[in-house]
């Protein structure tokens, strides 16, 4: 693939987690994915004209809990499980789905529905001691899909994540994630570091040519979700939200590719089109995620130039919502079996 030369300007003061710095190394040597600079302006102009979707945690049906401690711990639970909801078309059973309140959900919203259902049924998913002792059978029951649908992928890993949350909350934070927020002094970057220090399952990095490439998808989205869950006040107040990058997953690159912002080399495009697994930590997967983060950073810069400054997490939120309504003929997203997104 011929890679168009692009200058990726970087202000290290805006990148305290060094996500942009590490992923920029990948862009400079990418062979499988490239950013098409000419398409950034058109997508930025469309975003500038659009009404941003509301980040309404309560209105979106997330489990809220009865107080701040419960809510903060529940947000942590949601993002410990926020990965890998896809299936390969043509499987033996329909995709994992959850019906609650007369409405059927799949993907991330099925997770939200399952956790909401479990809390309503009396499961104290905010309680650290309870989380630490959950068995795989317990988690299978909590995340049970509708009859006849597939089991949620990576069930065992999800149980391990919940056990880890409970154990670490007890060991470091007295059972309350609010304590971690207070220890970070309401800094988004500092709280990400605390999450990475105490919860290994959030350490989303990949080895690449002697470098440790940082993505931190679930750790960063956790901050944005706390911000939304508390309506930007109290425990959801962070003074440096602008330091978050995009949350590199599988829906954002699909949308960016749909708009011509990302271009895949023929072999990768063929693999994605035929639902072939893209191995975790492969050059292809690392390039998809790195270019996604930088495409959103370039959109952020373009929106600022248009007089519509928006932080990366808000751009990510708008793109992710748009990606949920892509037409059926859209090229599929890549499939990588991973706990990180």
Can you tell me about this structure?
The radius of gyration is 19 Å and the shape is globular. The chain has one domain (12-323). It contains 14 helices and six strands. Mean pLDDT is 95; it is low at 1-5. Helix content is 47%, strand content 6%. With 341 residues, the chain is mostly helical.
Q: What number is the mean pLDDT?
A: 95
- Sheet with most strands: 2 strands, antiparallel
- Net shape: globular
Radius of gyration: 19 Å
Helical stretch tally: 14
As a percent range, the share of strand residues is 5-15%
The proportion of residues forming helix, as a percent range, comes to 40-55%
With strands numbered from the N-terminus, the spatial order across the biggest sheet is 1-6
- Spell the H/E element sequence: HEHHEEHHHHHHEEHHEHHH
What attributes characterize this protein structure?
341 residues; mainly alpha; two-stranded antiparallel ribbon; 6 strands; 47% helix; globular; disordered N terminus
């Amino acid at each position: 693939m011929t890679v168009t030369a692009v200058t990726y300007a970087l202000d290290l003061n805006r990148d305290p987690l060094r996500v942009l710095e590490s992923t920029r190394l990948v862009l400079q040597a990418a062979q499988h994915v490239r950013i098409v600079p000419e398409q950034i302006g058109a997508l930025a102009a469309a975003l500038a004209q659009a009404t941003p979707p509301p980040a309404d945690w309560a209105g979106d049906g997330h489990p809220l809990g009865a107080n701040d401690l419960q809510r903060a711990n529940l947000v942590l639970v949601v993002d410990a499980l926020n990965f890998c909801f896809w299936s390969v078309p043509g499987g033996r059973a329909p995709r994992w789905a959850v019906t609650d309140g007369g409405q059927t959900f799949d993907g991330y919203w099925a997770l939200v529905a399952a956790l909401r259902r479990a809390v309503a049924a009396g499961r104290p998913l905010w309680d650290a001691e309870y989380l630490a002792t959950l068995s795989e059978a317990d988690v299978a029951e909590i995340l049970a899909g509708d009859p006849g649908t597939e089991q949620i992928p990576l069930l065992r890993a999800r149980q391990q994540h919940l056990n880890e949350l409970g154990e670490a909350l007890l060991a470091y934070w007295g059972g309350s994630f609010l304590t971690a927020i207070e220890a970070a002094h309401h800094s988004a970057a500092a709280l990400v570091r605390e999450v990475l220090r105490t919860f290994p399952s959030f350490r989303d990095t990949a080895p690449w040519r002697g470098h440790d490439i940082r993505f931190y998808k679930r750790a960063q989205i956790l901050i944005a979700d706390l911000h939304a869950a508390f309506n930007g006040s109290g425990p959801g107040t962070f003074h440096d939200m602008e330091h978050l990058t995009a949350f590199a997953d599988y829906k954002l690159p699909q949308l960016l590719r749909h708009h011509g912002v990302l271009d895949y080399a023929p072999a990768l495009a063929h693999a994605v089109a035929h639902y072939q697994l893209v191995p975790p930590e492969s050059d292809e997967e690392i390039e998809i995620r790195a270019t996604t983060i930088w495409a959103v950073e370039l959109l952020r810069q373009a929106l600022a130039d248009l007089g519509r400054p928006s932080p990366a997490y808000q751009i990510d939120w708008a793109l992710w919502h748009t990606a949920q309504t892509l037409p059926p003929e859209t090229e599929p997203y890549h499939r990588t079996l991973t706990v990180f997104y």
